[in-house]
Write a structure and sequence with these properties.
The protein has six helices and five strands; from the N terminus they run H-E-H-E-H-E-H-E-H-H-E. It is of the alpha/beta class. It has a five-stranded parallel β-sheet with strand order 3-2-1-4-5, with helices on both faces. The protein is globular and about 40 Å long.
């Protein structure tokens, strides 16, 4: 029971954004339901998608902070970002958007990179969950 009493605050939620589509927006909505402190992280690709995401956050006023990490290997940059956030010793939940194809056996194939990233994050000792979006 002491462990339950120790966690008095709701965790901070971090949503990994690759691009803006319905699955990513659904994951942001899920994060808002889980936590009052939500941030999104995107790896700067230097392409149009990064500009679109920055513009959406500039126009929007939904209380979600956007962190854009420098160019590089997306996996390494995201893991380094999460390592810094975890070092602050605050409760942290990482929400990773996935898509659910109509044919069930395609799920691992469609989300192969994402599921690999989820395993890497969980090995760091950070709570991670997927937010599946049906196609």
């Amino acid at each position: 029971m002491q462990a339950v009493r120790a966690v008095q605050t709701s965790p901070s939620a971090v949503v990994l954004l690759e691009h803006l589509d319905r699955s990513q927006l659904s994951a942001l909505a899920y994060a808002r339901a889980v936590s009052n402190d939500v941030s999104a992280v995107h790896v700067d690709t230097g392409r149009l998608e990064t500009l679109r995401i920055r513009e959406r956050w500039r126009r929007g006023d939904d209380g979600i902070r956007l962190d854009v990490v420098a160019e590089g290997s997306p996996r390494e940059r995201i893991l380094a970002y999460l390592q810094r956030r975890a070092a602050a010793r605050e409760p942290l939940v990482v929400i990773v958007p996935t898509v659910m194809p109509r044919v069930r056996w395609l799920y691992p194939l469609v989300n192969l990179d994402t599921l690999s990233l989820v395993r890497a994050i969980s090995r760091m000792g950070i709570t991670v969950t997927t937010a599946p979006y049906p196609l």
